[in-house]
Amino acid sequence: MNSMDATAAKSTSPNATLVYDIRRSRYLNITGRCTLRCGFCPKQQGSRQIHQYQLALDKQPGVDDLLPLLGDVGSFDEYVFCGYGEPTLNLPTLLGVARAIKARGGHVRVNTDGLGNLFHRRNILPELADCVDALSVSLNAQDELTYLEHCQPKLKGSWQAVNDFIRMAPAYIKRVEVSAIDGLPGVDIPACRALVEAAGCIFKHRKLDIMG
Predict the structure, then answer these.
(1) Which among 51, 105, 133, 186 is placed 20 to 30 Å from 208, CA to CA?
(2) DSSP 75
(3) Which 3 state secondary structure label does DSSP give 66?
């Protein structure tokens, strides 16, 4: 499990990939649930796959499912919670595994849609601050109408919630990157950058259909 080549670890089902490697990062796939229905997401287009990995899960894994799959933390630049769904929706597993990684000296990043506070109806950032080094937040729009068009949130108030999250996050997490995708109709990349930088975060300019 320590190979730098693209590798994957399975759960009890042969079709459920919990861990996969891209370059020197180990990715942790902990839920298939999401608070968004983004039109550009491979899942919404019927794909279960990122690179060669099949990521649809047969169950929502717990801490004990992931710990044996972490490998040697010295072999990886970072562990990234990013898979088939929104990792903060399986918060107990995220926190438990992230704390184990930190205890072993590893670096933890969470890729998120920034709606964890809205979903859990509380500020989860203090809990993440205990064990997360970096956040990568998907914003993908400069205004609410564009956000609703492309991200199709399931929860009312999502646009305001993600903006509140990115404004709050730098007070808790050392590195907060917020991304927008170049190539989505109506998305104004300079306007997204200005919004992100005004919130005190680092802007990440992504390209449509480039994953990982």
Answers:
(1) 133
(2) G
(3) helix
The percentage of the chain sitting over the pLDDT mark of 70, rounded to a whole number, equals 84
State both tokens at 58. 């047969």
Residue type, 135: L
Q: What is the DSSP string of 92-138?
A: HHHHHHHHHHHHTT--EEEEE-S-HHHHHTS--HHHHHTT-SEEEEE
Output the pLDDT for position 197: 98
- Taking the C-alpha atoms of residue 30 and residue 63, their distance in angstroms, rounded to an integer, is 9
Place of tokens 């044996």: 68
Check whether 75 has a pLDDT greater than 90.
yes
The single residue listed with the structure tokens 């933390």 is: 73
d(CA 133, CA 127): 12
Structure token digits, residue 77: 């630049």
**One-letter identity of residue 198:** A
Q: Could you tell me if 134 and 173 are in contact, meaning their C-beta atoms sit under 8 angstroms apart?
A: yes
Q: How far apart are CA 7 and CA 137, in angstroms?
A: 25
Strands (E), the chain: 8-10, 17-22, 25-28, 49-50, 53-54, 78-81, 108-112, 134-138, 175-182, 202-207
